Amino acid sequence: MRIYGKDGSIFKIIAFPDENVYKGEYLLIEDDINTASTLVQVVDVSYAETPGLLEELIREGMFKDNRTDLDPYNVGETTKFLRDTKVLHCVPRGVINDGRLYARIYSLPSRTESTIKRIPSSKVLEFAASAQSRKICLGRDRDQLRIRVNAEALDGSLTLITGMKGSGKSHLAKLFLLGLLKEGAPILAFDLNGEYVCLNTTLDGKPSENHEKIGVYYPGKNFFLSLEYLGIGSVSKVLTKVLNLPGVSAAVLNEIWSLIQNQGRVTLKLLQDVINRSVSNMKVKDALTSRLLTLRSCSFITDDPRKLTRLEDVIHSEGSAVVIVLRDIPSRARKILVEMILSKVVSLLEVDKLPPLFLLAEEAHLYVRQTYWEDIVTRMRHFGLFVIFVTNQPDALEHQVFRQLDNIFLFSFKNDHDLDMVSRISDVDAASVKSIVKEIPRGVCLAIGRAVTNLPMLVCVRDLGVQALGQTKTVFKRVEGEIETQVTYSSNPLPHV
Fold it and tell me: pLDDT (tens digit, 9 = 90+) per residue, 210-227?
């Protein structure tokens, strides 16, 4: 490989026919004059254009069947070599000096004294690695070397996993859950489709090493909340924000709540009884009664203290995962439940009754209002709730959320609108992201952000070793005698683009 030129911030490097280099790979330009080596990433590959090539190809097509080639000087081989020579369009990512990576370019490398070689992504991460010891293995690079990211880079960060449906988003989210759990982190996960319920079971149906650490809760069956446990603050938020209770009615509810609390336990039944007896304004009474009836219809709300699930009892500082299964809950009840849980979690974090934790939210726009996410994202550092969003609709998240993202894991996208939105909010130039992401296959993601020390990495996501569920159920099943090919994540090759 040879340096051809530089156009703006793009290095152009000539790759000869016997040198196979693909999008997303890293190259190291070692300069005999400068002590520092330049690290560049391939973002596009094109053919080398030579003068007269188009005319020659047309002429060859016209006379191909009616001529006999006489080539005593072997000019044809030289021509073929020129035609198959490629130009690699590369973006500089930094320089390597004394075994350390620095995110800046000191000077241009020499075109005559430089040598260029491929460098595995895992090796690049080693140059940029910090002293952090907690590692999560995401998968492998093109050279089948393991890609490990810093778990600490997810701590204190806002993370987004996005891509088309069926591209592997949920698989990576489960990998993060298991990896963070292994490092002792507490995690709260909202499971919209019932995909996380078997993460504590191995592929052969036996309990996994995390069997005791992963708790699966089904609202209305083994997970219940009471109004007294939630408190007036959380209940008032649910009634006003989710059920649109007017402010005047909310003020009346606060007074009644205080009255009941001074005399004993607050229960849903007692609230209804007191409202029916003491509220004279019919509009206020109807507003409160209708909202409380909605709460009464939610199977996960109880007045029985023996059924109550206390979040501080199930979320442990030494590492635990609480999976709340939302699959069989009606839409409105689901929004009520999530708002109650998040509000209670935040209040417990603010008084240090819960340790800082990760929140894994799949398709969060379906069950949490946007203003709530904005509030959590804006203040998350102060009370220790760090969100991992998983969605195939990045435009469903507000721009304020996007602006604060620290890590992005991009699976395949074909929609230009989604690509435009996601590529603009990363630290990497938009053209690089769009060029690479459009052509990666299922199970491969482009990692960007703090987790990969701000160096974009193509990663073939590994298998989990547990029952991941979440596979697409198809109409046409395998018939007798038909060969079924199951492509696992770890065996899926990186794209040759």
Answer: 888 899 999 999 999 999
